[in-house]
Automatic annotation (TrEMBL):
Name listed for the protein in its UniProt record: GNAT family N-acetyltransferase
Annotated signal peptide: none
Lineage: superkingdom: Bacteria
Organism: Bifidobacterium thermacidophilum
InterPro entries xrefs: Acyl_CoA_acyltransferase, GNAT_dom, Mito_N-acetyltransferase
A Pfam family: Acetyltransf_1
N-acetyltransferase domain residues: 3-160
PANTHER family: ACETYLTRANSFERASE, GNAT FAMILY, N-ACETYLTRANSFERASE ACA1
Length: 163
């Protein structure tokens, strides 16, 4: 499987929504609780500072995506935030790593100076290891900062990466 990271297009909305909703429904990474419709997805992904998809170059299928946007406004507007999603059926093939690396480059190109993650769920060990391997700095932990699908609470970890 060859992977190309490219800018999101409106025609990607259905596949992007499917992948995004998988992560929302898993309930162990994203703060959102409601699935996106195709129409909502296109508006959501198009409204970001940047949105990219990972496309399988052999099939043309979208298998992952990321969104990039400011983490705050005004005097903190140089700090961005991002979210990543990879289709369940292709996880473990380093697509997430390709998305993160592309995002770091795109964030710098967009004029951001820092990429900050506000809420990496502590049990998301694959994400934790990836971010640390790529040079993200762990800022600390918020005890019980994330509510799981079963109603229990889990710690979240904050990270940043200077661009």
């Amino acid at each position: 499987m060859g992977i190309e990271i490219r800018q999101y297009r409106s025609g990607d909305a259905t596949e992007a929504a499917r992948i995004w909703n998988q992560v929302v429904d898993d309930g162990v990474a994203f703060p959102q609780e409601d699935d996106l419709t195709d129409t909502e997805a296109d508006g959501f992904f198009s409204s970001q500072s940047y949105c990219a998809v990972a496309e399988d170059t052999e099939t043309g299928r979208v298998v992952g995506l990321y969104i990039l946007h400011p983490n705050n406004v005004g005097r903190c507007g140089h700090i961005c935030n991002a979210s990543y999603a990879v289709s369940r059926d292709v996880r473990g093939r380093h697509i997430g790593e390709k998305l993160v690396l592309d995002c770091l480059a795109k964030a710098k190109e967009k004029g951001f100076r820092i990429l900050q993650f506000n809420a990496v769920v502590a049990s998301n060990t694959h994400a934790l290891h990836l971010y640390e391997r790529l040079g993200f700095v762990r800022l600390g932990t918020v005890p019980g900062g994330y509510r799981l699908n079963d109603g229990t609470y889990e710690d979240i970890v904050l990270f940043y990466h200077t661009l």
